[in-house]
Structure formats: structure tokens, C-alpha cells
Amino acid sequence: KLVLYGAIDAPGDLAVAITGPRASVRVRLKEKKWGIWLNKRQKIFTDVPGYYAVAASKPLSELKAKEALYVNQIGINNIRFAGAEEMQDKERKKWIKGLTNSMLKSKRYIKTLGKVEITDNTLFKTEVVFTSVIPSGTYTVDTLLLRDGNVIDAKRTLIKVSKSGIGAEVYNLAHSAGLLYGILAVFMALFVGWFANVVVRKT
Fold this sequence. Notes:
This protein is of the alpha+beta class. It is 30% helix and 38% strand. It contains four helices and ten strands. It has helices at residues 66-71, 89-105, 165-176, 178-202; strands spanning 2-7, 13-19, 22-33, 36-49, 52-56, 114-115, 117-119, 123-128, 137-147, 150-161. Helix 3 (165-176) packs across helix 4. The radius of gyration is 22 Å and the shape is globular. The mean pLDDT is 83.
């Protein structure tokens, strides 16, 4: 859990976006043939955030700052991805929607809007919950102070997020030596199945 807090110099509404490290992502379109799902086409998108969450003092629609939110990429629908520019706009949007839905399902993108609490028009606080699947790296926290739909102040903060303990070792192994990790996972599954069978027989 990440707790963000601070103070503002003027009254207004706050919007905070937490963006994970950006990387290239390969998106595959699957098609079912003869009862089997096969990869039909694939596209590579770059500059894709590995994590994304937003908190605000009001629902984004009530901030009446559509242009400012778009420019600053506040809100999942305002994230801009690079790559696959050769596609027609309508088709490209379908691929981006698939990428976004995948990130939402894996809980790397948080759909629920977090709450920014403002006290005495000065102090503010919000909490962000990180799931275990988020990538390690440098995260960007963009805080916007809005009034009448305009940005009157902005601040960017960088935070370092890393995993620790056995979870970190498993994560690093899975990403640095995928083949070895897969082999170990198969052997572990076989061992657990064999051990469970032995226990059942004895009982």
C-alpha cells in the first residue's frame, strides 16, 4: 500500500495518476479453429505502462476538465500507446481495447477510482494498493490541481518499487530464465500430484 499526502497552496480539485514503468507489449489476436485457439495475428505496442491507477477528489466527469485530463493522460481511456500506427484508427482502437482489458483482468490497471481526501482546503491524502503482479521499477506519480477545468498547479514524483523475499526470487527467475522456471514449475506440479496420491493411498 502506498500513502500519498501533501499540501496545496490554493483551493481546487485534485487528480493523481500513478503510472508504472513503460515497456513494449506483444498483443495477440486468437482465433478458434477445429476447437483449438490459435494465434492469428499479433501487434507490438510500445510505451505501455506496466501499472496504472487514478485517484481524485471528485469523479473525473465532475471535474469538468476533459481536455486537461486527456493531455495529462489522467484516466484509463486517456492513456496513449505507441506502436501499430500502420493500422486504421478504428482497427487500432480495437487492439488497444483488448490490451487495456487484459491489463484490467490481470489487475495491473485499476478501474476503480481512488479517493483523494482534502482537509481544510490545504492538506490532502490518498492511498494506492499495489497487487503482487505489478512490475518492479520506477513509478511516476502525477498530481494535478484543477480549478474550473484548468490546471493551476502540477507536480511529478518518482518512486522506486521493488519486490523482496522469496516472491522477488520467483519473479526474477520467471522473467530472466523463463524456460528454467517453466521446467521447475512442471516438476513441482508432478511432485505435488505424486505426494498427494501417496497420502491418499495411506489414508
